[in-house]
Amino acid sequence: MVTSEQIINEARSWFNTPFKHQAKLKNIGCDCIGFVTGVLENIGYDFSEHYISDYSEIPDGKKLKEKLDEILKPKNINDISSGDIFLMSFNSLPQHVGFISELNHQKYIIHSYKNAGKVVEHCLNRFWYSKIIRVYTLEI
């Protein structure tokens, strides 16, 4: 049984992995989808049959959401907790994923962020929270 602490510890071990479109290798390169997939694979989940490696830099948001709804368990967005996976919308399209984390009772997000050029963790402030359209949990 995997715990949220194991998920977050693995996600944090990816810090500073460079952003690289369609990659999912810790310390080598990953995009947001590759980051989430890589973390989950490293803690024992096999997503190889679900992983889609041929997508544009702006993924098909509808297809991404449908795939996440199929393989993960959606939960109430107001009940986010450490270890959850978020789906964010930019320009009205679902297109960004990562993990919810927590430090000192404050919520954060960990994600492979193109603008930062790497995997980072920062506070889940109003801006980021407003972008979340769906939250998923692994049945842990």
| Reported CATH architecture | Alpha-Beta Complex
Overall strand count: 8
CATH evolutionary superfamily:
endopeptidase domain like (from Nostoc punctiforme)
Largest beta-sheet characterization: 6 strands, antiparallel
Overall 3D form: globular
What is the C-level CATH assignment?
Answer: Alpha Beta
Taking the alpha carbons of the first and last residues, their distance comes to 6 Å
Strand order of the largest sheet: 3-8-4-5-6-7
Instruction: Name the structural class.
Output: alpha+beta
Q: Count up the helices.
A: 4
Mean pLDDT: 90
**Rg calculated over all Cα atoms:** 13 Å
Total of domains = 1
Enumerate the spans where pLDDT stays under 50 for 5 or more consecutive residues: none
The H-and-E topology, N to C, reads as HEEHHEEEEEHE
Q: Work out the helicity level.
A: 25-40%
CATH topology: endopeptidase fold (from Nostoc punctiforme)
